[in-house]
Amino acid sequence: MIFCLFLLNLTIFSQSQNYARLPITRENWTKTFPAFRVVGNLYYVGGYDLAVYLITTDEGHILINTGVYDSTKEIKKSVESLGFNFSDIKTLLTMQAHWDHVAELAEIKRLTNAKLFAHKDDVSVLESGGIHQFFNSDPFKFSKMFCGAVFEPVKVDRHLKHGSKIKLGKTTLKLHHHPGHTKGASSFTFDTFDNGKNYRVLIVNMGSVNTSRGVKLTGMPLFPNIAEAYAKTFARQKELKFDIWVSSHAGHFNLHEKYKPGDKYDPQRFVDTEGYKEKIKHYENTYLEKLKKEQEKKQND
Ligand SMILES: [Zn+2]
Fold this sequence. Notes:
The protein is of the alpha/beta class and 301 residues long. The protein has a single domain (2-14, 31-300), classed as Ribonuclease Z/Hydroxyacylglutathione hydrolase-like (Metallo-beta-lactamase, Chain A, 4-Layer Sandwich). Helix content is 27%, strand content 22%. It has a seven-stranded mixed β-sheet, with helices on one face. A five-stranded mixed β-sheet has the order 10-11-12-13-14. Strands 1-2 form a two-stranded antiparallel sheet. The longest helix has 28 residues, at 273-300. 43% of the residues are buried. The protein binds zinc ion. Zinc ion (ZN) is lined by residues 96, 98, 181.
């Protein structure tokens, strides 16, 4: 408790006082990036690294993810720079309930009256403002020291599961449950038309392991089957069929190598199946190495 109070004093309280802000330690999380069209009705409206996607339809728009605290202003600016109305956002989605991707959901929901849909296994994290993260189970770990909400709690209006369909206008997204990074980590696929061609789009949440938060693959009290969850995710991700892929961090799909602000619209730059396979392999190898090390350590203990 002493630790909690001490650290809370170091954080900045939000106006409503219902959560304490974590320090933003990465410059790329607040660096802005001009909005652009990815393919068809899919647009990038996020920052330099934290990806936010806008999917437009005749009956309103879908917004996937937010950035860190106070990113609403930039997201709104980005949406408007493309000629769309921020107030036409009807559905909010999330790929992983970590504060750097969901901090502004409550604010955007308030401003737009949109409904928030999330995988059922991330609901308690979103509704508690991050208190119910599975890595908060050990009182001596960093995250627990904050002892409370780290983003504004937000009500989830619809609970999704693997295979759930999210329909708006003529667009239908399908949720793919890719647990590990968070319990309810999610990817989405949908079809979009562009220039007479149909593109299957994959917006994927990569299976990276949050080592800095003390995540152990061999045993988290609040996520006992975490290793199996990651294994299932990699197996599922290898099976996915798509034409174009993007991800929840720009760095995960090498956005800045594929696109520079001002480049002419060309969906072909995001056709990169080999790059996708390599990334999945990279995260799977990192996971396997960590799991092996932990198992060896357990045997020696
Ligand atoms: Zn994360």
